[in-house]
Amino acid sequence: MKRVPQLPWVVGLVVLALAAVPGWAAWTGYRAQAERARGLLFDRSAEVVAAQLRLGTSRLLTWQNTLRMRLSNRPDDPQKTVMELFNSTAGLALPEHCRGLGYAAKEGDRVVLRWQRLGGSGGAGAAHGSPGLGTDLLADGKWGPLLHEAIGRPARPASVQYGGELLTALTVAETAPRNPRGWLVAWWDLAALSADQQMGGLVSDGVLRVQPAEAEGMAGELAGERVFTISEGGASWRVRVGPGPGFTAVFPAVSERAIAWSAGACAILLAGLAGFATHAAGLRSNLAAQREVLELKSHLLHSVSHELRTPLSVIVSSTELLETYSERLPAERRAEVLAQIRESSGQMEAMIAQVLYLGRIEARRMPVEPKAIELCSWMRGLALEITRAQQGRGEIEVKTPAACEVTLDPALLHAVLGNLLGNAVKFSPSGRVVRFSLDVSPADQRLSFTVQDEGPGIGAADLERVREPFFRSAASSGVPGTGLGLAIADKAAGLLGGELILASDERGTRATLRLPSCPPS
Predict the structure, then answer these.
(1) Which of 1, 40, 375, 450 is exposed most, by the fewest CB atoms within 10 A?
(2) Helix 7-71 crosses helix 256-268 at what angle (to 10 degrees)?
(3) Rounded distance, CA 239 to CA 99, Å?
(4) What is the pLDDT of residues 429-469, one digit of tens each?
(5) Which domains does the chain have, with CATH numbers?
(6) What predicted TM-score, i.e. pTM, was given to this entire model?
(7) Burial track 356-394 (b if 16+ CB lie within 10 A, e otherwise)
(8) Sign of the C-alpha dihedral, residues 376, 407, 426, 348?
């Protein structure tokens, strides 16, 4: 007579069989999600390194272009000038990662290398890939295509990459780029630039492997690698970025054994499945938070570098103009150039001040210091300040009670209302009126400031995000700004104990700052 299995064992086997399905599904989904998150972390890290390489390349080409400007539009022979610059007591020195620098000039149908200075401790030209003095660069296999490009486009830098070496050529002109006197050529060590310790821990700690891409036919991405084209200052080269030996230490790989044990525990005890799901949800949340931090850093780097690039370019070009033509420029023109430098410096200072101010608020290091102020005269003064700052673009109509003296922090109040008024004037059509008013509740003395403009308005989808740092709505296209004003205003309103309310349609935007009861001063 056969023994019939006891019911608990049967139930246990059924439960294990049923639990194996969600356990296997959880294991598969967790592994796929973790691998995707790890890949996203690598992509963001690689983009940060590529941005640093662009900055490094821009610095190298800016140095060469500045030297070219010093050789152009001068009566002296450029070869003599560059020799004096490098051979004097306080002479120039080649920047880091520069293998060599040379000056070439035409001799009939030839372009001959007349002078060169090699970088590094070794002086052998062959070790640096130097063509050697007296070489016809047009006939050289490596330098010929570069010189032909420089001759065909004299107003723009020319570049070509050979593995770990970047060759560049800039035209030294007499009066205009179409009248070349010679060419300033340089060859750069891309491998050393890619391994520069100053690029941060991602490279120095071996988290990422960075190396110049090889020939054109090998520019495709390999498994687990990204290939970036670095285009800055007129030069272009390719670089490979892949996970380094330290990548798994910083971003650990998925432990399949741990996942298998977790899934097995879930199969044995259904309660463990809930715990595992909660754990997986927490990991996904942490990965999402890390992804958000990386995206914010990447966006911050892009936004700040983009906004600083324009005034910085104005300052560099104006400085080069003064350095080259200072004695020949009339006094009025020199004053204009200095005014451009001051204006661009002011723009950079204002943006950096906004970033620091927002950082102090978010770090909770912004003290609240209430003072006795008379709001009516204070509001009229603020309106006059904004009008002057916007160079009289629009009129601000101020409406206040006869008098209102309260105790508030004027700096935080200025951070809120100054940004609201500045945005209202900036986005309103020229000549339109911006209304700035104050209402005081007679019942409880609550304050309500209102700023109403006649601008294009903010879309409903963008209205929910305009308080985020660096976010700019679609209506702000073409209007300069950093997207920090409303973020600062919203957080400063919170420090004042109030709330900032925004409403917008096609007729304009209405911003209201409501403050709690303020004691009279």
Answers:
(1) 1
(2) 150
(3) 18
(4) 877 888 889 888 877 778 889 998 888 888 777 777 777 77
(5) 18-268 (3.30.450.20), 272-365 (1.10.287.130), 371-517 (3.30.565.10)
(6) 0.45
(7) ebbeebeeeebeeeeeebebbebbeebbeebbeebeebb
(8) positive
